[in-house]
Design a protein that fits this description.
Elements lengths: L3 H4 L2 H4 L3 H54 L11 H6 L1
Length: 88
């Protein structure tokens, strides 16, 4: 059976402010400031696109609900008839 201590690397449990600072410096040295800034820009664009999608979806649902008050849509039976099954 796995315990949380077996799954989590040991340095994560004891990472204080100095440990997190050291990790940030290592990441900065490995990837460089430009790559990290570009990555953060892409993350920001992704978050913006996600929020826009959620807003558009919510507006679409509200528009559908408002439209259904006046006219209700009925389900259309699309089951093929025996004749259509034999032909297709």
């Amino acid at each position: 059976m796995l315990t949380p201590h077996m799954v989590t690397p040991l340095f994560i449990n004891n990472a204080g402010p100095w440990g997190l600072l050291l990790i940030a410096i290592v990441v900065l040295v490995l990837f460089g400031r430009g790559k990290i800034a570009g990555l953060m820009g892409e993350v920001g664009k992704g978050i913006t696109a996600f929020k826009k999608g959620v807003k558009d979806g919510t507006e679409e649902l509200e528009d559908r609900r408002e439209g259904q008050d006046d006219t209700t849509e009925t389900a259309r039976d699309v089951t093929p008839t025996p004749r259509e099954r034999d032909q297709g």
